[in-house]
Amino acid sequence: MYTFCLNPSYCKGCGICIEVCPKSAIKSSGRIDAKGHELPEEQDMTRCTGCKLCEIVCPDFAIAIASEESTEEVPNEEK
Amino acid sequence: MPISGSKHLIQPGNYYLQGAQACAEGAMLAGCRVYAGYPITPATEIMEHFARRLPQLDGRAIQMEDEIASASVLLGASWAGTKAMTATSSPGFSLMQEVISFAIMTETPLVIVDVQRPGPGQGYITTSQEDVMQARWGHHGEGSIIALSPASVQDMFDLTIEAFNLAERWRTPVLIMAEETVAHMREPLVIPPHAEITVVDRVKPQDQGIAPQDYLPYGHGEVPPMAIWGEGYNINHVSLVHYEDGTVTRYNARTHFENVSRIHQKIENHIDEITKVDARFIDDCRHLLICYGSVSRTGVEAVLEARERYGLNIGFIRLKTLWPFAEARLRALVPEVETIFVPEMNLGMMIHPITEALRDRCSNIISIPSLGCLHTPDQILARIREELT
Amino acid sequence: MSTSAHPMLKYLKTQAPTGPRLPLILCPGCGAGQVLNYTLHAVDRILEEDNWPKEHFVFISGVGCSSRLTSHYLQFDSGWTLHGRSLAIATGALLANPRLKIIVFTGDGDAAAIGGNHFIHACRRNLNMTIICINNGLYGMTGGQVAPTTELGETTPTTPHGNVEDPFDLCRLAETAGAPYVARWTTAHPRQAIKTITKGIRKNGTAFIEILSQCPVHKKTAPVELFRRLREITVSKKDTDAIAAGKIPLGEFCNLDKSDWIARYQQIIENARSPEAD
To answer: N or C: lower Cβ tally within 10 Å for chain B?
Structure first.
């Protein structure tokens, strides 16, 4: 099972991640943040295969796909 | 910093060389191992000499597609840790101004030789001093610059080494404002023992024990230590107004002022250290001749004859450094005089900062212009006598 | 709140004493950030597989939105340089240190307009560098003006009555000028782009890789719409019928073996320094 980790301070709501996801695992949240960006969120991560296309196409390095197998704590860039 | 012991470097001794060759040999002794250029009369001999000689020293010479590319090569070479030079003439010098401006802001050591020819436009291919203002003001934006003025083949050798040393010491582009006369003339040249030649290299952060994670590309002092590419310092060269850490967002007027004025003052605060002025017969002189470059050769002849044959008490000053302008040094040297003559191979350029500096010491400052050819001693002397007798 | 970070962030400078450097200054949905993402994936792969020292990688850019990628983001040596002159600067760096692995980010205006002369000569000289040209068909930074790659008839702020010029085919230009490795993809072809960039970096000689990209702000179109359009207007280079009908070919156009400038000049150095030469 994968987790869609989004860094909201990097994401600009371009929607390309949603567009490329082959499994429709993520969707637009429908909410606009304080900067005017419509951020994505998980739709159904049981569909996610961990292909990481969303990570690859993200223009702002805002996404990380985490698998529950990986126990390594990656530093939060938000600091 | 000792000169590398390559047998291919020009060896100590007496030579009879062209100014162009002397310039190139001086550069190679100073450690220049990258040359890029574009053919242009009367500077091409310098490139041709480098093209023959640099491979012997494990260096690389390239003819680029234009002068802008040639100057741009120097940026990359310098950032990769190698001393680099180009030589051009006046039209090519105009093309290089953007790169010079960029080099000032990024604080990149490099040397550009302008073998001046007359303008404007194609002008002609003889000698000139018409770019001496362009040297200071030709680059867009603020920022001071260092410009040297050789007057002999020996100078073409000595001042080229000096130019590289100044560039490395102050992290700045340095201009050698030669003229066709001095680049094409052939004269005796003395190469001293290599141990007697001082060669300066840039200070790197490693030299000051600064680790990559602590390094501020534009910090650590008036002249920031310079990291070179390939050594793990993750240095980014940037010419937009920047903070000491190299970031470029969060623009504000105060940071802008600090950034640019440090670069400006880096040179302007050290004029005494940087500049060289020669003076003869200054004590109690009643009149004065101030000149630079090749005109110094005929100018000094005119002064000697004026003194010995006509009994005129005229002193002689030669500016070896044009920029930064040695105003304080001039004011310290020059007493109150009745007349100052400024012969130049242009319609009067350095006469302006000279007048600004000495206006209260002399109310009769006279330009002696010549376009396209070197003044003869007689020409200068005639003007002196016309004024004084 | 997320606890994982994008895997390529390890190659970026995210913080500064003055505050966070990210997100990238680029507009939402701009393709340039994607090209950086693809390039870092390529470099990551090479660092893992080829044992090249990370310190040897150098990124050089000129001026424009594409060139902002180096402005203060990279955990590599880099240079954010003069408009159009990055290839000449890269040439200088290689003449000084041929071991540097130089990757140039440029745009269509930076490479083919003001940089055109340096572009064709860099391809001709075959120095070992990878040129990644982010082609959005306009001048983004200054407001969307016409570029040498803008389609005929397009309205832009400097062609308000329609562009009367035909565009360059940058890949054909590079190939004709002599670059031994020339390829084209779009931001909508991420895996192909990463594979090609990897190959280009590994290629000895000048590798020219054009990535067609989207500018949502000046096209006044949502990023996703432009992303889809990039897939619609392009085809594999093998689809000659579609290309004849006006689609843009994608893929590798040439991959030649050609001795590079440094290797040829090295022969000159060795001859000049040999004992017989004295």
So the answer is: C
